[in-house]
Each structure stands twice: as structure tokens, then as C-alpha cells.
User: Fold OBG-type G domain-containing protein from Coemansia asiatica.
Amino acid sequence: MASSFVIAFVGKPSAGKSSFLNAITDASAKVGNFPFTTIEPNQGIAYYPLDCPCKRFGLSDRCKPRHGRCQQGKRFVPVRMMDVAGLVPGASEGRGLGNRFLDDLRHADVLVHVVDASGTTDEQGKETKGYDPIDDVRWLRDEIEEWVAGNVLAKWANSVRRHRATKSAAADTLHGLVAGYGARRELVQRALDRLASSGSSSVDIGEWDEKDVRRFVGVFLDLRFPTVVALNKIDMPDADKNIAAIMRRYKSVPGSNSFLVDGVSEQNIVLSSALAECFLRKLAKQGYIRYETGDDDFVTHEEDGSLKSIDDKMGRRLENIRDLVLFRYGSTGVQETVCRAVDLLGFVPVFPVKNLANFGASSGDASSSSGAAFQDCVLVRPGTTVREFAKKLHSVALDKGYAGAETVGNIQLGEDDVIVADKNNIIKFFVSG
Assistant:
């Protein structure tokens, strides 16, 4: 079971989004150095690593995930990835493929903004030299803000009139304006609370002007679309100076409670080389090297005679990747980007089982492997309750026939108990009848 949330790769054309998707998934997205290579959103499955309880209970030899894999207690859980076609400045006004691309973002839970740190593509995604990508993060955020703010402001006057007439709660009125972006009321309330704590806007939305609305949209987007920035092509000339400038712009101020700049914090900037990852994965698949995504080095025929020999050209390219990427940065950054995106949302791994004595499968279907443990792992949002998870797992049998739940040690769980990692996230459900 892949997770129900989506990580969307965004950015200008030719920044490396399609290469990134190919590097981290098994998808075969088109790759080209011209605008609008990607017309429809490409989707794929990547894997998020976490500690599997099979190791804690000494059951690694019996851990057989239905989806993903488990290697000596390290679980690789599938997550959905989407590559949204490249945006260009003016997209919110219809430039390029404009609103069509922005509409795709509504299906995303977290964004990965792939930025060409090498300066070899301009703001339109066309080949160039010496382009300064310092503003690439800002203009993409501006386009998204303009898109959402424009839609909200178009309905603002009528919404405020209804708000005053019905004396609705501010969160209810605002939720009605942004629900189309996949936002829950709770998130809208959080945005309002953050604005109130800053004292930057009136608590009475009936008194808001356009600046107040835009300020709310900015905070709302920080919460609705948390963003990881992947500074890509780090092994290219000029990348170093561009990276340094971008990091300075988004450097966090210790003790500051100010809002994010362009929706970005330096903690969520990752240095990456998607093409290096693609090359390493390809050679590993062909048997020339031993390498796993996220490794800080690879093994060749010289260290392992069972691997194929490499020629001089291949060897030079591998050494360049080793020197300019792996030894310098510790990895290609591709796996770290996915991990950072999932961690931003704080998702909790849940292991539904049928039997708490042997941690057998959560369902008795014919596909369940005899004796297999911890076959299922589902990532859920923080704050998810036991009953909410039951409905997510099986909306008919477990929700309508729900009769209770318990966790390790035969500890009974309440319907409203919040699921917490390493506390009550191994769950057996009971159904009536």
C-alpha cells in the first residue's frame, strides 16, 4: 500500500525535475533540455526508510512487506511522487501552460522545488551560461501566492458579507475560500492563530484589506504546501557560488519567530545531483558497481571481483561523481530530499496486524504469506486517531464493523487515542460479527 499523500516536484523547465523523478523512482519520465518536456504530471513510487519493529522483536527473518521491502530491520515504505510540468514567470497570469500546472499542485501535500544551481538554464528553462538562480525560489513562490490570492480576493467581498450576516467563525469563512486547495479547517485555524500571535493582522477578518488577505495566503501556503528546496546540479561549474548565495538568503536567524522567507528555511534546503544518482543506479543495475541510493560511496570490480569491469571512460565519470558529489557532500542528495519531504509532514508509521502474538498480517486474504510478520505499513498524518486509521485502512469492514483495537501487551486502545510512533502504532483491530 503506497501512502495516500503526494510529494510534488515543481520548478522551472529543465531544472532537473524529470531526472529527479527517474533517479528516485522507477518511473520513465521524459527528459529534455527544452521548455514543457513534461506535459502531464509524471507519477512514480519512491521509498522512505524507517526502523521496522521486526528488528526490535527479533523477527527480521519473517518480515515480508507486501509493498516496499525490509532489509535487516530497515523498512522502505512506498510514497507517491509527482512531477508537475515546469512553471515559468507569469504562470499565474496564464503564461506557458499556466493555471493547468498550478492546478496540479492541489493534489500535493508537500512540494520539492528543484532549482538548477549551476546557472546553465535561464528563468524560461532555456540553455544559457552564467544565469543567477538566486531568485528562482522567490518567483515560484510568488506565482503560487498570486494564484491563490487572486482566487481568494475574487470572492472576498461576497464572503465577508455572508460572514457578517451569519456571524460565522473566521476559520469557517476562510475555509470556504481555500477548501479547494485540499485544506482542512484545522489547518486554516492554525494559519489564523499564527497571524494572531504575530499581531500583523486584525483578529476580525471583516476589517481585513487586500494586504491582510495576502498575508493570510502566505501563512496558509507555508502550512498547506511545506517546501523542500533541492539545489540540483551541484557538480557543475559555478554551482558553488550560487549555492552560497542562496543559503545566505534563507539563513535562519537564531531565536527569530518571523515568518518563513518565500516559504523556505535553510533546514529544508538539500544539495543534490539527480543525474549522478541516475548514472549510479544504472551501473548498479547492470552489475558494474554495488551501490544503494543514499550511499556515500560505491564498490567496483577492483574491490569485488564478482562485478563487471569498467572501461576508462566509465571510470573517469565515476571518479568525478565520487570526488565532486559523494566525497564532498556525503551522497547524491536524492534520498535525503525524499526523507526531508516526508519528515516535514511528521508522518507516523502504523503497522496493522491480525495477531499480536506473532504480528501476522492484518487481513486473512489468500495473498498473505504463511508465517509472515509486519506485512503492512501505512504512513499517516500526525494527530490521526485509532478510529480514523481504521476507516482509512478499510472504510467498510473496519469502520462500519469497528468493535475495538489493542496494541502490544494487549493494551486496549480508545477510538480517540492519537497514534504515536513506538507507543501504540502496532495495532490489532476487532470487528463485530
